[in-house]
Amino acid sequence: MGVKCWEIASGNALWHLEGSEFDNFKYSTDGKEIFCIENGKNQRAVRWLEATTGKTLRSVPLNLPQTKNLKVCIAPDNSTFLDLGRLTLYETKTGKQLQRYVPDGVPYGATLLANGYYAFVAYTSSATEDNLVSKLVLYDFVRAQELATLSLRRFR
Q: How far separated are the first and last CA of the chain, in Å rounded?
């Protein structure tokens, strides 16, 4: 397992990370750092890497349940990230859990908006053979409340 960073113009490998699985890579706004999630067998962590060398600049352990793959959505300003499996918002710099959203159904997608504290969450709220209800919710993690809801019903 590992990750390689390549220079596209030359085709040369710039650096290589060995060991854990890494996911959810995102460059900082200035392009000098890379944010990623380490999905190790015994450890989960937020890591910041130096973009040119791959050197770990800092790492914050995450106290998250062990699942096969941790999928997150990262705020555009890298200030927060959302665990898509549990719909839990974390502060990126500390790994501190900020808030959890529990919809009245099964979530299947989410994205954080620019400030890192609002998210659009899509989920199925009820389903029968003849009636499927999906919802798209604008959720405020600071106030822990739904701000707007769009319900879509599909009948057979």
A: 46
Closest among 56, 104, 48 to 74, alpha carbons compared: 48
- Give CA–CA dist 19/21, Å, rounded: 7
pLDDT tens digits along 71-122: 788 888 888 888 887 888 988 888 888 999 998 888 888 888 888 888 888 8
Domain harbouring 43, CATH code: 2.40.10
Handedness of CA 40, 44, 50, 56 (dihedral sign): negative
CA angle 56, 60, 66 (to 5 degrees): 110
CA distances from 149 to 110, 125, 137, 139 (A): 14, 12, 4, 9
Residue 100, token pair as written in the block: 């959890």
Residues spanned by the domain of 115: 71-156
